[in-house]
Design goal:
By secondary structure, the chain is α/β, with parallel strands linked by helices. It has ten helices and nine strands. It has a five-stranded mixed beta sheet. Strand 1 and strand 2 form a beta hairpin. Helix 2 crosses helix 3. The N terminus is likely disordered.
Length: about 270
């Protein structure tokens, strides 16, 4: 038997809109052609295709070419804002031959373009790289680059790294609001006290069915009363660090000093 980390309702909704679980996006472009895609492990979904005629540069005058490129960049930027949900997407690869990608990002990040505020506020999630073209097949090309894979891992894990840093800070400054270990986190959850929950993905692969169910329910509970949940990859250094803290930790909305008297279960549920 397999226990999913989502409720049945979530799974049905995701089947209807698989973009809701794609935390990686890719924008591949060349002059006059762009694809905005969402990437899952098993598929690449095109959310927008932008095609525009771009006049060639003429000797002594680039005016028509430059104006057309600005219209093209605006259309690509609008498509990015429309189709990328930054509450889900953790990393956006932007790839092109030459400097087209750089000019696109320069355009959408310029302060006067308030319509691109979502992009501007999440600019740390964008990774620029080289591709041979703006056709959809270029997405596979850039994903196979080992250097890109390394950047992807760090960019996608940035939220988890920050959450863990916040946990250590809270543990030092206000220890009654920072706890790790299954017993403490489950007790805090009973009081709906968890503001940020951190869990390693390996706990959802536990060979023990009740353990998997317990963490699935914990995640759903915390999301249900408005808490934030970070699932850490056990393959990333941040996940390894969380595993040293039993694999589960929480920042609380209010102090619960009574939890300090509970012994931390050092035999993590990961076994």
């Amino acid at each position: 038997a397999v226990v999913s980390t989502q409720s049945t309702g979530d799974r049905v909704e995701e089947a209807c809109d698989s973009g809701k679980t794609a935390d990686l996006a890719a924008v591949v472009l060349q002059e006059g052609l762009a694809h905005v895609c969402l990437v899952r492990q098993s598929m690449t979904m095109t959310r927008a295709k932008i095609e525009m005629p771009i006049p060639r540069k003429r000797r002594g005058s680039c005016t028509n070419h430059d104006k057309a490129m600005l219209r093209f960049f605006e259309a690509v930027g609008v498509a990015m804002v429309r189709h990328l949900d930054f509450s889900i997407v953790k990393c956006v690869l932007v790839a092109s031959p030459g400097f087209v990608k750089d000019k696109l990002m320069e355009y959408v990040l310029s302060t006067e373009h308030s319509q691109f505020r979502a992009i501007q506020e999440n600019k740390s999630q964008f990774v620029l790289c080289h591709s041979s073209s703006g056709h959809k097949h270029a997405v596979s090309e850039i994903l196979s680059d080992n250097n890109i894979a390394s950047k992807l891992s760090d960019t996608k894990a940035a939220g988890e790294v920050q959450a863990l840093a916040d946990f250590y800070t809270m543990l030092k400054n206000e220890p009654a609001r920072a706890f790790y270990g299954p017993l403490q986190c489950l007790a805090a959850n009973e009081q709906e006290a968890i503001d940020t929950l951190m869990v390693t993905d390996s706990l959802f692969r536990s060979s023990d069915l009740p353990t998997r169910k317990r963490y699935v329910q914990l995640v759903e509970d915390v999301k249900g009363y408005g808490g934030t949940v970070h699932i850490f990859s056990s393959l990333h250094v941040s996940g390894e660090k969380l595993a040293l803290l039993t694999g589960v930790a929480a920042l609380l909305r209010f102090p619960m000093p009574e939890l300090e008297d509970m012994a931390v279960d050092s035999s993590s549920d990961e076994d």
